[in-house]
């Protein structure tokens, strides 16, 4: 069983930065992906947008709208997934979720953390 706990959300002005963290517990499969998704009001969580993903190989991919502004990284020693967000825009406001997908293609979601970008 994998458990994920997000932290680091909050209120920030446009152009500001936030760093989200996801503490991971449990045993991961040898092949896996760790992702950040974001859910806007009225949207079903499982249909929300994938923002960034990192695979066990270290390869990363980003949603076009956040490329160059967001960076996903994993601290393998502390078992923490990070999302560094710079130059934030109001349209980045959402609940951000950390998601683990293992070899069985089962998704594990954290509880989410709210990010609000507003003046």
Which key terms come to mind for this protein?
119 residues; mainly beta; seven-stranded mixed β-sheet; four-stranded antiparallel β-sheet
Walkthrough of the structure:
The protein is mostly beta strands and 119 residues long. The chain is 0% helix and 51% strand. Strands 2, 4, 5, 6, 9, 10 and 11 form a seven-stranded mixed beta sheet that branches. Strands 1-3-8-7 form a four-stranded antiparallel beta sheet, with no helix packed on it. The N and C termini lie far apart (40 Å). The model has no long low-confidence stretch (mean pLDDT 96).
Give the number of helices: 0
Cα distance, first to last residue?
Answer: 40 Å
Query: What would you report as the Rg, rounded to the nearest angstrom?
Result: 14 Å
Q: Which runs of at least 5 residues are low in confidence (pLDDT < 50)?
A: none
Structural class: mainly beta
Assembly context of the chains: single chain
Give, in order, the helices and strands.
EEEEEEEEEEE
> Can you summarize the main beta sheet?
7 strands, mixed
The shape is globular
Number of strands: 11
Q: Mean of the pLDDT scores?
A: 96
Share of helix, binned: under 10%
Strand percentage lies at over 45%
């Amino acid at each position: 069983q994998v458990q994920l706990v997000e932290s680091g959300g909050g209120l920030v002005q446009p152009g500001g930065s936030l760093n989200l963290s996801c503490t991971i517990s449990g045993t991961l499969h040898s092949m896996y992906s760790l992702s950040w998704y974001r859910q806007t009001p009225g949207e079903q969580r499982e249909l929300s947008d994938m923002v960034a993903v990192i695979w066990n190989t270290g390869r990363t991919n980003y949603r076009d709208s956040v490329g160059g502004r967001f960076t996903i990284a994993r601290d393998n020693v502390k078992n923490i997934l990070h999302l560094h967000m710079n130059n934030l825009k109001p349209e980045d406001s959402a609940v951000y979720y950390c998601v683990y997908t293992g070899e069985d293609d089962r998704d594990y979601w954290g509880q989410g953390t709210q990010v609000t970008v507003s003046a």
